[in-house]
Amino acid sequence: MSAPPPADLRHSSLKHDGLKAVALGGGHGLYNTLTALRYLTPAVTAVVTVADDGGSSGRLRRELDRIPPGDLRMALAALMSAPAALDDLAATDPAAAQRHSRWAAILQHRFGGSGALAGHPVGNLLLAGVDEFTDDLVGALDSLVELFGIDGRVLPMATEPLVIEADVTGLEEDPRLGRVIRGQVAVATTPGVVRRVRVTPPAPAPCREAVEAIQAADVVTLGPGSWFSSVIPHVLVPEQLTALRETAARKILFVNLANEPGETTGFSVERHLHVLAAHADSLQVDDIVVDAPSVPAGREREHLERTARQFGARLRVADLAVPGQNVHDPLKSAVTVDRLLADSGST
């Protein structure tokens, strides 16, 4: 998913014995964060958005009327194929490490051709089938974790598929007029300006196991990822937001490296924070982590430091990107989290 890290980082010792980590998000942003946290601990729980309505996930969601499997599959593959996980396994069973790497690739493989299966990842069909067979998505995910010997756990954010709706301006001749855009893909690709999002049904039932994982965690991360469709939805599940407010875990917010065309076109880093606060003004975090080139030193960074304080947080500026790409380097993210934990005396 990213370029190899510099040699001086690749051989760093980052393990924290007994650390319990929870990562909230979806898609490629969550994939990178899970890969990063796996450098620190095998006890990583992914809490995943469940509103995808595009591609293979959308097709399976409509055909089976179940939670879309795509982001959940990616989280399983991330924990299974994380370099730290493969290194740990190779130290005791090199053949098992090779099998893990191969099966992670198989889960991600998409069928070719032009028939009914075209474009479906193998892992989506496997997870959807086990979910339908057991009629228990958490049980289905736990079964796949057990089957493949994956460290950690993958959980849905809610126990039913959600729909994202957004209030969007800039689509009418009168710029003051807004329109409601419905569906994750439509929200992510709208040419208008997203003002606010919500989920349907409102106040969805949380995944109880996800709430418990947040409450018991030592560190919780939120982001990076599609801001309106993968990050903000996590604060729109009331019981999950309560768990985030009340947990004793160190809470770390990773801000995106760049704007996403359509969803956050023209957004500054500061605006990302303002829109998150508009959806969850009671949320407090410990650290807000941004990539250094995205916030040059000076007035802009000073404004951002003040905005961070509205979350009760300290602004943390670090080198996070894969060189030449707007993608978080998982090992750089891991090193950043390791330093934050050391700064707080956490173990």
UniProtKB/TrEMBL annotation:
GO terms for molecular function: LPPG:FO 2-phospho-L-lactate transferase activity. It comes from the Bacteria. Keywords: Cytoplasm. The keyword Ion transport does not apply. GO terms for biological process: regulation of cell shape. Pfam families: CofD. It is found in: Cytoplasm. GO terms for cellular component: cytoplasm. Its main location: cytoplasm. InterPro entries: CofD, CofD-like_dom_sf, Gluconeogen_factor. Required for morphogenesis under gluconeogenic growth conditions. Belongs to the gluconeogenesis factor family. This is Putative gluconeogenesis factor. The lineage of its organism: Bacteria, Bacillati, Actinomycetota, Actinomycetes, Mycobacteriales.
